[in-house]
Write a structure and sequence with these properties.
single chain; 355 residues; alpha/beta; two-stranded antiparallel ribbon; 12 helices
Amino acid sequence: MVHRYDCPGCGARVHAPLPVGDGEEFGPNIRSIAVTLRAHAMSLGKVRDFLHAIWGLEVSVATILSWERAAGNALDPIYQGLRPQLTTAAITPSAEGDETGFPINGTNGWTRVGVSGDGGTVVYSTLPSRGQDSALGMWWSYTGAITRDASHLNNVLTQPDHQMDLVHVNRWLQKVEVKHHIEPRGFLLERPPKYWQAGRPPAEFLRFAEGVRAKLKDAVVWHETHEKVPSPWRHRRYDRAVRSMSRFVDRAWKNRDAARIAKDIAGQLPGLFLFLRDPWVSWNSNGAEREVRAFVVHRKMAGGRLTWRGAWVLDRVMSVWRTCRKRRVKFLDVLAGKVNLLQLGPGPPSAAPGA
C-alpha cells in the first residue's frame, strides 16, 4: 500500500519513495524476515504460509528462494571479512572448532564451524567431505591455538597450537562405563559410580577412570582459580600436569579399555594442558558445539539443502546471523540494510487518484 496525496501548495500528486527496486513488490524488511525464517530451518512452503497468515501476502516459493539467494550475495562481503578475523592470530589468539554432517540433496556433506575464543566471531563452511582439505580450508593460515576434538583429520594443521577438548577425553571414559552398565559421570563433580544392574564391574578400569578425571579436574580448578598468575608459574604448572598424566597413563594397564584410552591420551599429551600455559585458551570447545548445533537443528528439521548453491547461501546467512547474535547486533537490521542497498530503486511513478 502506497500513501499518495495532492500537495496543498502546488497541487502535484506526490508519494513517499519506496525502498524497493524496479519490479520488486516487497520491501527489505519482509524479504529479510523470510530469509531469517529460512535460516531457522523453516521450509519454503511454511515461510510462504507464514507470510500469508500474518500479513496476507501472496508470495511464491520461487520468489522466497530468490530472496534467499540475494541475501547470500548481499552478505558475502561480510562473510569474507569474518574469515580473516577468525584466522588472524593477532585478532583471535584462540579459537574453537567443531564439525557435523550436513546432507546436500541426499549426498554426504560436512559443515565445519570456527568460533573465536571470545565468542564474537562465528564462521561456517560446508564442503563435500570431512577430509583434510576441509580442515585446511578453514584454518590453513591460522597460527593461534585451536580447541578441538580428537579427530586425526585436524592433525594436518601444523601451524596452530592444539588444545584437546577435555570433555571429549571424559567421553572416552563414559562410553566404557555405559558398556559396563555404569552411569556415565563428569569429571568436575566427584561422585562414586552408580550401577544400572548387578555384575562384576571392571575394577582396574574404574581406578584408571578415577585417576584420569582427578588429574583433569585438578588442572581445570587451578586454571579457574589462578587467572592472574605470572607466565613462569603457568609454564611450571603445565609441565607438572603433563609429567603427572604421562606417568599415570604409562603404567602397565591390563584392562583392555584402560590400555587403549591410555594410549590415546599419551598421543594427545602435548595439547592436553595447553590452557594451563596460555590463559586465553579454552579447555573445552563448548562454544563451537553450541554453534554447530544450529546446523544440526537445520539438518533434523529441513534435511539439509537441495543444492550446493543453497549450502553456500546458508553458510553466509548463518555466519552473519550467529556473529550478530554474539556481538549483540540485530541481524534483521544488518540483513535489511544490505538487501536495501542492493535493490534500492526510485519507486513507482505517481498514479492517478484511486490507483
